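2024-03-11 09:14:02 INFO receiving multi-entity request
2024-03-11 09:14:02 INFO entity count = three
2024-03-11 09:14:03 INFO echoing inputs for audit
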Amino acid sequence: MRMGIAMDDSLLEVKGVSKTFGGVVHALDDISLAARRNEIVGVVGENGAGKSTLMKILVGVYPPDKGEMYHKGEKVPFPKNPKEAAKRGISIVYQEKGVIPWLKVYQFLFLGHEDKYVKFYRLQTDEMKKNARAILDELHVKCDAEVFMHELPLSTQKMVEIARAILSVRLESEEDGTTPIIILDEPTAPLNDEERRELFSDLLKMKKNASFFFISHIIPEVREFTDRVHVLRDGKLVANYDFSEEKIAEEDLFRAIVGRESSEYISKLEVNGRRSKAVGLTAKNLTKKGHYYDITFDLHEGECVGVFGPAGSGKSHIIRTIAGIMSFEEGELIVKGQKLKASELPHMRLRKGIGYFSGETGKELFLNWPILKNISIVNMQKILGKFIPVINFNAERKMAQRIVHRLRIRAPSVNTDCYSLSGGNKQKVSVGKWVERKPEILLLDDPTIGIDVGAREDIYEVLSEMKKSGISMILVSDDPKEYSILCDRIMFILDGRIQNVLSPDEFRKVVGT
Amino acid sequence: MKRSSRNRLIPPVIIRTLKNQPVIIAFIAVFVMFSILYPDRFLSLLNLKTILRQFVTLTLFAMGPSIVVVTGSLDLSYVGIWMLGGVLVWLCMPVLGLFSIFVILLLGVTTGFVIGVIQTKAKIPSFILTLSLLVTYWGLTAKLAGGYPRIVRGFEFITAPLIPYIPTTFLWSIPIIAAAVFIMKYTKIGTYLYAIGSNEEGAQLAGINVDRYKILAFTLSGLFTGIGSMILFQHLGGSTPVELKLNTLVWPLVAIVLGGTPLMGGSGGPQRTILGALTFTVFYRGVYLSPLHPYSVQLLVGLLLIVSIIVSARGLKGVTIT
Amino acid sequence: MTTRPSLSWEWLRRNMTTVGPIVFVVAVVVGFQMMNPFFLRYQGIISLVYSMSYFLVAACGLTFVIMTGSFDFSVPSLLKLSALLCVLYIEDLGLWVIPLALLACVGFGFINGLLLAKFNVPSFMATLGVSIVVEGIALYLSKGFLRIMDDKAFRSLAITFIAGLPSVFYWGMGIWLISIFLAMCTPFGRRTYAVGGNLIGAVLSDMNTVRHRIYVFMLSGFFAGLAGILYMAQMGGGSVEMGADMAIPLFASVVAGGTALTGGVGGPHRTLLGVIIITWIQAGMNMLAIGRDIQMVTFGLIAIGMSIATIDRRRIKIIK
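2024-03-11 09:21:47 INFO inference complete, emitting structure
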């Protein structure tokens, strides 16, 4: 692993980029990276590592606090807005919401640059269509220039977005023949396996027209399709790999991305509680085309099963299907001897005993509510009066205080609005309501994303206790350490299929934590 | 063998158009139905002329709002512009003479601009904003008119008959409608408005100044409504502050939705609205000629609105609707 | 360790939606009182009570809908329908018209909710469409004529005087108190706040959001029906012209009280303030012989102004 790469023939290079938000949060700390002509450079890291901040700086959305930019070896100022960045040759394809569904392909391709095709206020659509077809051919994008964007398959939509980015550079840049540098922000996130493969083969063909910054946290893809990769962690550049020069294993990349000093996880939490033979949930051949296939497993009482895999492997989809957020097409899902309907709302799943907790607190927490209301919303039955369905405020308050105490939530009172809590405490409130609810099966979807170590420990402790009391769990996370702390068994998922089931020890060996 | 010969009978182009614009089927169905039911009254020259005239009125009021609906917002201020504009004309007649008709245009453009600015800067939902504005204008109209309908004379020349059998308002409306369709289909502005309606965030990311174009959409709406009101001024009686009837207020919206412009925006537009207005007018006239009580007509209009919205809102799974 | 809130600009800004309406009410009362010292005389108060009570009932129902982030345009029309049903069928059905009217209104409320929750029709359009249908039915039933209600039992609902105030006042206050109770102390109320506060969060919790949203519209319809009954009982007669321009003042009174369009905040307790503001402004303007036209202007401006003031901009990035 080497820290710096000598760039003689670099197309674009940045050195020493730093950015803080609000003077406190170090989003980026002394980052340097570079791209040569006609290469695909990967930029990887966990959520919150700083990837999108860095890209936004490159494309002119905001300026860095410190840093220098070099274009073809010459020092240039950072662009002040996306149009300037395009003049410099830099343009970006966003992860989502970049496509306008009801525009035709040729309209979308030239969106923002219509001034080049206007005569007496009228758009020269024939010429636009002709040029559109030309660039689609050149970049091997197989689609009709006159259909609506939403009629194209997802991977083709992405390709058109990339074509648009390249086109932006060509139309805006002052010198001819600038090689565009296209930033791809998690381009494969919305795609299924087949679409992903198509996208990559098309991308490789495009290499001779442009250079790419490929942001991702899908390790196998990065390994296979990028020439070099920069690894970011917590705002710092921690590794550079050049695939042409060394053989890098996936585990090395994993470690670079995730690696924390093991001493930070102090307590030896008792993971392998007694596992009863009783089965809480059975999945048989669960299939949803394009997402996961033939998922079969049993979940016992008091057991925690981890569903592990690189991003895009289908693990999130599986857990969301069990939660009721997604539906499955084939197979069976059986809880307490009852077959569940393939397509059911989350609250129905909850009635059957399945609770779902997602670490993205924006989604499920009621931020303008006080803590106690957030805890009680799924625990209404516990705080109602005996004869009339009226809320017993005293009981509500006591319930919230119990949870606050147990999870060590730092807040002035249970009446504090969740807006003002820190990230970790928000997460605790979110977990807290499930701790109180005690569903028979708790689904954990990235439960500790982006929160500090102390909060994590508190949450792990409580989850362990819940496990001991007989609650089963399924865990999906991006942090391998979490799996080895919480899970009794870990299923390894790749391309939507279960590859292997590992014990925590085996898992640790494979992942290397 | 059989399939290819069937295809030759109905060219795929027509099938595709019918699939994209089911309103055409509705129009044909309604027209045929009433022609069969009341052949002498429905197909009479008088009735057809009335249909044309009512179609023109409806369309002129629907052009403006249909531009705004494409961006995903709603604009209910058209009746207000017409009422207040009328009263302002009456007030300005002594001073400006025949030029006072242009006051309506000025009012329309200003109203649209103000709505656009408030909507984008203060982030109020457009329906409540334009509804409140409508009510405000209605109050102002009543106040300025002093409580009586004020008749203005002198603008008959606008709608004086030119070609036999064809209402002059129809002739005036052709360039207006053409202009609206041109703007939406063939200019950069139109493309941007469709983009904003289809995916506002994506349009923003693509570098479009969304606020600016939304303001433009509202301003254009006011402009078209203003022009339409000018043309129809004498035709509709000239400056009568009307009762705020929920029923008639909603007709341009029905025309827009019926024509195939979804309320969420992104597609459709003035060209579709023309068809919707035509279908609605034919439908309304037909029902009017029928022995159904006039009050039941209102009921039918309401039902029509609901049904067309349901049909056009079908593809909205997963979007948060409030 | 809690910090005591100091009377700084920051505190004022954050609590504007609570402080604002109170200040407003005081200003209105004081203002009108100064202009006409007889404003708060007994007669004035009685007429205020009459205009306020049924209005309050309707506004409470609308409040629940707005709390969920939706809009119910059909409240005035349902009020009218309910009133008309009462006067038209009082002779045939006696006091059974009351459950009839209420049932009809709840039925339309159900349709509103269904259109929104199952058919994805935006609430504004759905309720607009329904209100047109309802008005059509009302027109058809009444044939446009003015009707007189002279059934003693029915009218006594509203005009029996108890302790110097007409019974309609007690109905209004009672229903208001029940609304507050419903909103604050029951799971139904909590869920209403949840749907408005964070729909995704609500879906992920153990409530059936589709069903709840339908219930909320049914509630709004029910209250509209109640308001219509009270209105007819107190007025003693009516035609289809009544309630034509009630929509904006109704809406204005809900937002003026501090319940935001974005949903999840406010509640019926706030709506009382809003109703007081609107009805008293109306009364004051009537007293100053300001025509209904300017009144409309005022309410329109208040509606716009209070919407701006109460919208929670933190939560919504894109408003159409």
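2024-03-11 09:21:48 INFO post-check: The beta strands of chain C are 147-148, 161-162, 165-166, 237-238.
2024-03-11 09:21:48 INFO post-check: Residues 1-5 of chain C have pLDDT under 50 and may be disordered.
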